[in-house]
Design brief:
about 70% helix, single chain, Rna Polymerase Sigma Factor, Chain: A, 2 domains
């Protein structure tokens, strides 16, 4: 079933919308949640919450790319659960390592304004469009999906050291690019 048809089911308040979404995107959403959360129980709860949130937000939202929308919902819910687990000393997973790695690029921890966020998004888009495809894939896998370095290396036929080196160099380039554009994070 196509995304537009599934979204139409949500608008019709047909419960098949959730079943169709789950059938089409469960594996994708599970991949995102598993890379952020450390327990199978948390992953299952996250996925259930993501489907529930989709039901509650479509309508009024009408995503044209349902995969991206479900990935965003899953990622937000997984991060919220991760923070909660960390707060009660239950957490773990790959996310702590990912966030530590990104500290190289981030200095200011304040929440950016809408204008600052838009400027940052534009700058990041320009930066990544200048990077080779493999660099974009590795960076996205690590810092958006939270994939483990060994999994990235295996999927791309690289060594773990090669992935780590590529990530380190890209973070340094990104920091310089952001500073050159006057963006300090």
């Amino acid at each position: 079933m196509e995304d537009a048809e599934i979204v139409a089911l949500y608008f019709a308040r047909d419960e098949q919308a959730i079943a169709q979404t789950q059938q089409k995107y469960d594996r994708y959403c599970r991949y995102i949640a598993e890379n952020i959360l450390s327990s199978d129980e948390d992953v299952e709860e996250c996925l259930n919450d993501a489907y529930h949130k989709a039901w509650n937000t479509i309508p009024p939202q009408a995503p044209t790319v349902l995969a991206g929308y479900m990935g965003m919902l899953t990622r937000q819910i997984a991060f919220d659960r991760y923070r909660e687990n960390r707060r009660v000393k239950r957490g773990g997973g790959e996310l702590a390592l990912v966030l530590d790695e990104l500290q190289d690029c981030i200095e200011d921890r304040s929440v950016p304004s809408v204008q600052e966020t838009a400027a940052l998004q534009d700058t990041l888009n320009r930066f990544f469009m200048q990077q080779p495809s493999r660099t974009r894939i590795v960076f996205l896998q690590r810092y958006w999906y939270g994939a483990r370095v060994e999994d990235i290396a295996r999927s791309l036929g690289m060594s773990q050291a090669g992935v780590n080196t590529l990530l380190c160099r890209t973070r340094k380039k990104l920091k310089k690019f952001l500073e050159k554009d006057g963006i300090r994070l």
